[in-house]
């Protein structure tokens, strides 16, 4: 299930793509299949191992074109293990809402992007997310949970402060918003019959891509899309604010898992 539109990101074969907070690798997989040179980063060791395993399976199955490459890195998003101005594209999907110092994280994104490079940032949309918070503390108030809810204008302003130029935006995953409202209403840990039935609907939509649910989501995304996606670029020929003003600090020890 992809949140980022790769055409709006302008992802091309041979591009170096940094997938931040990659989780179990869904965006890294698609970038790799499109011929990119992917560096997937996450702090969680299980997520790193899962992403590495699935990228290896994609390579073995011959689903990635010649020239595609991947590397999976266990790293801190506030001290990215990447040189200045070294990547063409960055994906930061559903991760900034977990980071207390999101200003520093955005500055790091600006630092590693090449001039003319582009980033896709996705976060939970304000309205659907605010309702989840109102219905359930357990949804967000836990270790590693969501620490803020972004309004679109605030997110764009913070990206601009980091030295990036916000561009197009859209919403995604409207069918998932009612699912999470339902889970929050009944208890996020409760596995009720209604929750299971809605989950089966989402799995059916994901695996079969039927016309009915695809059309419904396309129409509902502008109204209740669960995620907000903002695309931004680093101006060509200008140093990013994050690169000029970031705090110099030693990066923590990281686990690197090269392959591909």
TrEMBL record:
Gene3D superfamilies: Vaccinia Virus protein VP39. GO terms for biological process: methylation. CDD domains: AdoMet_MTases. InterPro entries: Erg6_SMT_methyltransf, Methyltransf_11, SAM-dependent_MTases_sf. It comes from the Bacteria. It holds the Pfam family Methyltransf_11. Residues 18-120 form the Methyltransferase type domain. One of its GO terms (molecular function) is methyltransferase activity. Keywords: Methyltransferase, Transferase. The keyword Methyltransferase applies. It is an enzyme of class 2 (transferase). Its EC number is 2.1.1.-. This is Class I SAM-dependent methyltransferase.
């Amino acid at each position: 299930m992809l949140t980022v539109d790769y055409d709006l990101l302008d992802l091309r074969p041979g591009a170096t793509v940094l997938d931040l907070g990659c989780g179990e690798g869904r965006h890294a997989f698609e970038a790799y299949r499109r011929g990119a040179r992917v560096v997937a980063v996450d702090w969680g060791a299980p997520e790193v191992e899962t992403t590495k395993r699935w990228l290896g399976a994609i390579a073995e199955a011959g689903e990635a074109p010649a020239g595609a490459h991947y590397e999976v890195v266990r790293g801190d998003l506030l001290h990215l293990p990447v040189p200045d101005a070294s990547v063409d594209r960055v994906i930061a999907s559903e991760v900034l809402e977990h980071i207390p110092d999101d200003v520093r994280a955005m500055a790091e994104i600006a630092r590693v992007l090449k001039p003319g490079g582009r980033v896709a940032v996705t976060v939970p949309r304000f309205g659907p997310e605010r309702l989840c918070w109102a219905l359930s503390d357990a949804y967000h108030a836990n270790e590693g949970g969501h620490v803020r809810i972004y309004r679109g204008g605030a997110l764009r302003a913070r990206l601009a402060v980091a030295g990036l130029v916000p561009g197009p935006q859209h919403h995604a995953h409207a069918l998932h918003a009612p699912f999470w409202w339902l889970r929050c209403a009944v208890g996020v840990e409760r596995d009720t019959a209604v929750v299971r039935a809605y989950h089966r609907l989402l799995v059916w939509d994901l695996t079969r891509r039927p016309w009915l649910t695809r059309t419904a989501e396309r129409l509902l995304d502008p109204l209740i899309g669960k995620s907000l996606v903002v695309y931004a670029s680093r101006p060509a020929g200008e140093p990013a604010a994050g690169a000029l003003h970031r705090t110099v600090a030693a990066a923590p020890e990281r686990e690197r898992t090269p392959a591909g």
